[in-house]
Structures are given as C-alpha cells and as structure tokens.
Write a structure and sequence with these properties.
Blueprint: E1 3-10, E2 19-24, H1 32-42, E3 46-53, E4 56-62, E5 67-68, H2 72-84, E6 94-98, E7 101-108, E8 111-117, E9 122-123, H3 128-134, E10 141-144, E11 149-153, H4 157-162, H5 167-171, E12 177-183, E13 191-197, E14 202-205, H6 212-223, E15 228-232, E16 238-245, E17 248-253, E18 255-263
Parallel strand pairs: 2-3, 4-6, 11-12, 13-15
Antiparallel strand pairs: 1-2, 1-18, 3-4, 4-5, 6-7, 7-8, 8-17, 9-10, 10-11, 12-13, 13-14, 15-16, 16-17
C-alpha cells in the first residue's frame, strides 16, 4: 500500500524550528499496531494519523512508544496539511474526532487557531524524587491532564532554560509528562516553559500544545491577562498564542511543511 506522509514543523514559521510532526493519511482500516510501528519508524515526538469521516476527520496521535490522548502540535500540523493540500478550503474549519473529544481548527491568514479543552491545575504533593530528578529545590507543584502530568513553577526564566533533568530518575516516577514554567523575562512573551516526557519515549518535547491547556489557564490567572504569548524554551524553540475561556483554551500557532513522501510499507 502507498500512503501519503508529510513532515511539518509546528509552532514556528521557519523550517527546522518548532516541533516536527509527521502527518499520515492511512486507510480507515489501518490498525493500531501498524500506526505504532510507523510512529516508531518516524521517531518524532508524535505522528498523526487521520482519515475522513462524516463531519470531519478521525485523528489519532502516537509517540514512538505509545498512543496519547491529546497532542497540540500534531493537531496543528494536521490542520496545516489539510489546508495546504486543499483537502479543506481556507474558510472551512477542520473538525477532528479524537480520544479527547471533538477538536476544531481554523485558518486565520498564516496562523491556525485551535479549540482545545482547558485542563486546570491543582496543587498536589509531588513525589519527593521529582524535584531532585529535575535538579530543582522546593517549588510549587501542580497537576493537570486528569492527574497524568505535573506542572512545576519556578522563579525565573533562566532556571527553566538551564534545566538538565536526570531522565532515568524521572522514569522512576509515575507520570505522563512534566512541565517546568516561569514568568518570562524575554521581551514579547508572558511565560516560558519546557516539557519532559521520557515515560512515552520523548525525553524533551520541543513544543507541547497540550501542556498549554494547563499552562494557559494557570498564567492567565496569575498575570490577570486574557491572551498570552508563550515561548517553549527547548533547543528548537516554539511560539504560541494562548487564550483561555472557561472550560476551553484557544491555541494559535504557525506551521511549515518540511518534506512530503510516500510510505510504502
């Protein structure tokens, strides 16, 4: 079988920055084991698989090691490919049926705007090994993503940028991922973050849209702002605009296709 495959850098306007995602258009009959094998072959933080259905597309996301419930950058990449290849006209919203319910995306000139669920943070007592594995002293720790992820707030962008986690130590803690964040000191941004997820085969995710479903509401409350501009300070880096609204969060980002290919296996 021959399957169309695209690699897209998401949350950036420039190639070789942001977060690369593969976007694949398999037949509807593709099984999970095949999709997992393709994701492992691509070896990116996420590979998106989508096929048409009534009122939109089915969308599933796989890391090299596991299927995940929510992924922002691969959703952005999927919408970008739908518009770029004229599968959708520019005025028509993309509708994605996912494990996290119905998600939508719309094109606004060279930005894509996505509607995601808000994931409020709640203060928790962190496992004592967590901060040590991150190389941090005691700081507030919150949980989001239905208790699957940790959010650690630190006092300064320089601390976020300098982190060098002990990934084997992190793996000993039960989680899906951990965000470390602070108020931004770089002009033009409200907050910065990094995201680590060795539990799903991604030591550091370059740009994590889903994490901003928790980060956005948290920083909107802390800063008293309705719309925020965020920077994920991974080595590749990425820019997001975030606007929480009740139980939903609007995420805006740009994307660029890096290459296209035909999958033959």
């Amino acid at each position: 079988m021959t399957v169309e495959l695209y690699q897209v850098d998401a949350f950036t306007a420039h190639p070789f920055a942001g977060n690369p995602a593969a976007v694949c258009f398999p037949p509807e009959t593709a099984d999970a084991a095949w999709m997992q094998a393709v994701a492992a072959e691509m070896n990116l933080s996420e590979t998106a698989f989508l096929w048409p259905r009534e009122e939109g597309y089915t969308l599933r996301w796989f890391t090299p090691a596991a299927e995940v419930n929510l992924c922002g950058h691969a959703t952005l990449a999927s919408a970008h490919v739908l518009y770029e290849t004229n599968r959708l006209p520019p005025e028509t919203p993309a509708r994605f049926h996912t494990r996290s319910g119905l998600l939508s995306a719309s094109l606004d000139r060279d930005w894509i705007e996505m509607d995601f669920p808000a994931l409020p943070a709640q203060t928790v007592i962190a496992p004592p090994e967590l901060l040590g594995a991150l190389g941090l002293k005691e700081d507030p720790v919150y949980t989001g993503f239905d208790g699957e992820d940790y959010l650690v707030v630190v006092d300064g962008e320089a601390i976020v940028r300098a982190l060098q986690p002990d990934f084997p130590a992190l793996l000993a803690i039960e989680s899906r991922g951990v965000s470390v964040t602070s108020r931004a000191s770089t002009a033009g941004f409200d907050f910065v973050s990094r995201f680590f997820a060795p539990w799903v085969g991604v030591n550091e995710d370059p740009v994590t849209g889903s994490a901003h479903c928790c980060l956005g509401p948290y920083w909107a409350e802390q800063l008293g702002k309705e719309t925020l501009r965020a920077y994920q300070a991974s080595p590749r880096g990425g820019v997001l605009q975030v606007r929480p609204a009740g139980d939903r969060v609007t995420l805006r980002g740009q994307a660029v296709t890096v290459f296209t290919a035909n999958l033959l296996a």
